[in-house]
Write a structure and sequence with these properties.
Blueprint: E1 15-16, E2 19-20, E3 26-29, E4 32-35, H1 41-61, H2 67-75
Antiparallel strand pairs: 1-2, 3-4
Length: 76
């Protein structure tokens, strides 16, 4: 992945030994999804989706839930 304005940047071919390294549109580093335009939308969507899955599992696991139970679960 190359970052920056592509209009003024020369096109480079990256090699590792004799093998060409392919360019990507996004990369995951330290748990963060980085897109070539530096837009965090995909990363935020993934994090939101994971949180929603967890909340759905909690909702299915407990028939009754009040604030005290939710605090205990979220602190665990």
């Amino acid at each position: 992945m190359e970052l920056g304005k592509s209009k003024r940047r020369p096109v480079w071919k990256y090699l590792m030994g004799d093998e060409k390294i392919t360019k990507t549109k996004e990369e995951k580093d330290l748990g963060m999804i980085i897109h070539e335009n530096l837009n965090p939308k995909k990363h935020i969507s993934k994090i939101f989706g994971l949180a929603y899955k967890i909340l759905t599992i909690i909702r299915k696991a407990f028939q009754f839930m009040d604030k005290d139970i939710m605090k205990k679960i979220s602190q665990a």
